[in-house]
Automatic annotation (TrEMBL), chain A:
Subunit structure: NDH-1 is composed of 14 different subunits. Subunits NuoA, H, J, K, L, M, N constitute the membrane sector of the complex.
Cofactor note: Binds 2 [4Fe-4S] clusters per subunit.
Organism annotation: Marinicella sediminis
Membrane topology: Peripheral membrane protein
Protein name as it appears in the record: NADH-quinone oxidoreductase subunit I
Gene name of this polypeptide: nuoI
Record field: transmembrane: none
Main location: membrane
Stated family: Belongs to the complex I 23 kDa subunit family.
InterPro entries, sorted: 4Fe4S_Fe-S-bd, 4Fe4S_Fe_S_CS, NADH_quinone_OxRdtase_chainI
Amino acid sequence: MTKIVRYLKSLTLNEIRKGLMLTQKYFFKRKFTVRYPEEKTPKSPRFRGLHALRRYPNGEERCIACKLCEAVCPAAAITIDSDVREDGSRRTTKYEIDLFKCIYCGFCEESCPVDSIVETDIHEYHFESMGKNVMTKEQLLAVGDMYEEQIAKTKQEDAKYR
Amino acid sequence: MELLEFLIFDNLIYILAIVLGVILTVAYLTYFERKVIAFMHVRMGPNRVGPRGLLQPFADVLKLLTKEIIFPKNANKFLFLIAPIITLATAFAAWAVVPFADGMVLADINAGLVYVLAMTSLGVYGVIIAGWASNSKYALLGALRSAAQIVSYEIAMGFALVGVLVAAGSLNLSEIVRGQEGGLVHWYIWPLLPLFLIYYISGVAETNRAPFDVAEGESEIVAGFHVEYSGAAFALFFLGEYANMIIISALTALMFLGGWYSPFTGDSWIAQPSIFWFLGKTSIFLYAYFWLRASLPRYRYDQIMRLGWKVFIPITIVWIFVVAVMKVYHVGPWWN
């Protein structure tokens, strides 16, 4: 008996009507789409993007070639050579990050005793030829110089939670 | 010479108008489909090419036309190329008998309904030949599924049309529409409600659209009969499928919703019969195609067969008798 009732009920197409009404309701809802290049989703100050080497306000580079970042890097993406500079201080002669190896874990930034190597919130970058994936010291310093203001700001925002 | 002049100056213009109209409609139908489905998914849909994405169809067409047509190894080249042409030609040929408004019809023939049924069924040959010529197991499976499905639903569709034929007493599409003159209550959708639903659902199945798109079934057989097609050949299949969708919607509007007649009665401008009523009614069913696609999951194959043979065919047979009895006793506002 219930079988026959169910069969007759199915002929009224009520279930399909319910489903159609549901999709119709969503048709008029506000859309979730973020129109990317014009609109962007908010980014956390802890966002880990492209790397940068920072300088002190007097122009001296922060890095002291302690090689902690090189040691902690789980992907072995950092290569550092160091030497004694004319003034007798220890500085890097080579500081390279292979961005293809890098997994953006942020350990280098955590390990740095002088806040030299940082990960900025830049995530829109690309390489145009082979080998360009290895960031040299000059490039990293240039990124740091260009975005120092932004980096300082995000570090400031995050500082109270650390 | 007179015949030639008649053919060229009268019919050629009509044919061009219909073909161009259908092609343009198909182009914007793809845009409309993507927008409707995106909106139901709470997305935006295409909005990059041109203002609000309105040039997207042309970008798609240009992309398809400039792509290479790849012939599979050991494929039968002649059949491989003729298949999309058959699909497209039958889809376009059916438009010859569609009356857009009173007297606005290319070929006002008496057997219009049978002609339409023949043309829409012939389209399956394109699918079968494509599946066979592709020399691919997915294509062959898709073609077999499509053939079985279309044969099954053709019967229910044919019976639904018999109901219309009984109701109108004519096979001429213009006559069928004229039988529904006189406002909303005179439309055949009321006495033929079950047949109307079955006709439209069978139409969805005939055109291989969701939820009856097992012939394509991305998750099971990649893309079914047109896996091996690319470039312009694929574009032809696409065009044929969408032209078929439009014709099914147009026929539903003609046979059940009174074609070019207004739902209102009286003397005001809104009660006048016009081509816009026909186009509007057709668009409702086109929208329903996408609405169904956004709402329902794909039927399992045996469920499709069950629905076609065990549900639709018995209901249509019973309702043909009901319609016949109603007609004999001059029931309602339709046959008195």
